[in-house]
Write a structure and sequence with these properties.
The protein is of the alpha/beta class and about 100 residues long. It has helices spanning about 15-30, 50-55, 70-75, 90-95, and strands spanning about 40-45, 60-65, 80.
Length: about 100
């Protein structure tokens, strides 16, 4: 978990996602896995500022329109929109976000 105490800039600045990516990658490599690529990481966001932060961090974004219309998340750069996260299984995420 990356919280406000871990970063100096808030969204839409990508610092939180860059930090989270670095921490996740460090954990993986410290346990013998290959380094993670940006294409292997998907941001799940429900705000335009968060979507813009994920995109600016060079990560793929799945938008969830909890309180914001889906169109706003699309305009902010969400690659896909999830009406219900229960519809998204690991395999469907891999297929949708494969570059």
């Amino acid at each position: 978990v990356v919280s406000a105490e871990d970063v100096s800039q808030s969204k839409p600045d990508p610092e939180c996602y860059r930090t989270g990516f670095q921490w996740t990658d460090a954990y993986r490599t410290s346990h013998g896995h290959l380094p993670m690529t940006h294409q292997e990481c998907v941001v799940i966001e429900d705000s335009p500022a968060g979507v813009r932060a994920g995109v600016a961090a060079d990560l793929q974004v799945l938008g969830v329109p909890n309180t914001v219309p889906a169109e706003e998340l699309r305009k902010a750069g969400a690659r896909w929109i999830a009406k219900d996260l229960n519809d998204w299984w690991p395999e469907s995420i891999r297929l949708a976000f494969a570059r």
